[in-house]
Amino acid sequence: MVMWATAIDKSPCVYLAGPLGFSEAGRYFVRDFLVPEIVRRGFEPVDPFSLTDPHKIETIKAMPPGEARLKAWQDLNREIGETNRAAIDRCDLIVAVLDGPDVDSGTASEVGYGFAQHKRIVGYRSDFRMSSDDEGGKVNLQVEYFIRSSGGTIVASVRELGDELSRLAQTTPVPKDR
Q1: What is the pLDDT of residues 73-88, one digit of tens each?
Q2: Nearby residues of 97 by Cβ (< 8 Å), 6 or more positions away
Q3: Are 13 and 178 in contact (CB under 8 A)?
Q4: Residue 65 binned pLDDT confidence (cut-offs 50, 70, 90)
Q5: Residue 163 and residue 148: Cα distance in Å, rounded?
Q6: DSSP structure string for 86-98
Q7: Pairwise CA distance, residues 156 & 99, whole Å
Q8: Among 21, 75, 78, 124, which residue carries the largest CB count within 10 Å?
Q9: Would the pLDDT of 173 be above 80?
Q10: Residue partners of 178: CB distance under 8 A and separation at least 6
Q11: Other beta carbons less than 10 A from residue 137's beta carbon
């Protein structure tokens, strides 16, 4: 059995991919349900929505429409993308929220990038609606392929997510220093 070992006795890091940070209800769910379960299972959650200073976003939103605002959004978008890429690189696992009529495009990108970086990925889909290409899948076939091929799975509840994280903690190779 392989146990986690991280630099300076840190908990293994889990990147939270998903669109929940865009809404008040989503932020509530992440803060009060997902993060506590991840922490309870001995992991350090990294919420990409907490990596950008909200003042930067509010400042741009308050700017009048025009070239300066457009350039400010372009610069911030590039900064956010780079920050999120670095966070995925630093983390040991990815938890991807897959709820909705289709997987969020940013989440799908993070899943694909994480797979290419050899990260284990766990999908969380509590949404009971059909969202796959056919009855053989739970979500978009490519997203599901990346999740399952990473050694992960798709779970339907926060409790199942915690159980899967505990299982992966026992079977995932020792992460590299971050």
Answers
A1: 999 999 999 999 999 9
A2: 16, 17, 18, 19, 20, 34, 104, 107, 124, 125
A3: yes
A4: very high
A5: 16
A6: HHHHH-SEEEEE-
A7: 10
A8: 124
A9: no
A10: 6, 7, 10, 13, 90, 91
A11: 17
| CA atoms within 13 Å, Cβ hemisphere of 61 | 5
88-124 tens-digit pLDDT: 999 999 999 999 999 999 999 999 999 999 999 999 9
Cα 143 to Cα 125: distance, rounded to the nearest angstrom:
12
Tell me, rounded to whole angstroms, the distance of Cα 172 from its chain centroid.
18
Residue with tokens 């976003």: 57
CATH architecture of 7-54+82-171: 3-Layer(aba) Sandwich (3.40)
Distance, in Å, from the CA atom of 110 to the CA atom of 125, rounded to the nearest integer, reads: 16
Could you tell me if 37 and 31 are in contact, meaning their C-beta atoms sit under 8 angstroms apart?
Answer: no
> Which residue shows structure tokens 């990409």?
48
Residue-wise burial string across 68-90, b where 16 or more C-beta atoms lie within 10 A, e elsewhere? eeeeeeeebeeebeeebeebbee
Residue 153: both structure tokens together = 């799975």
Nearest to 76 by CA among 96, 99, 60: 60
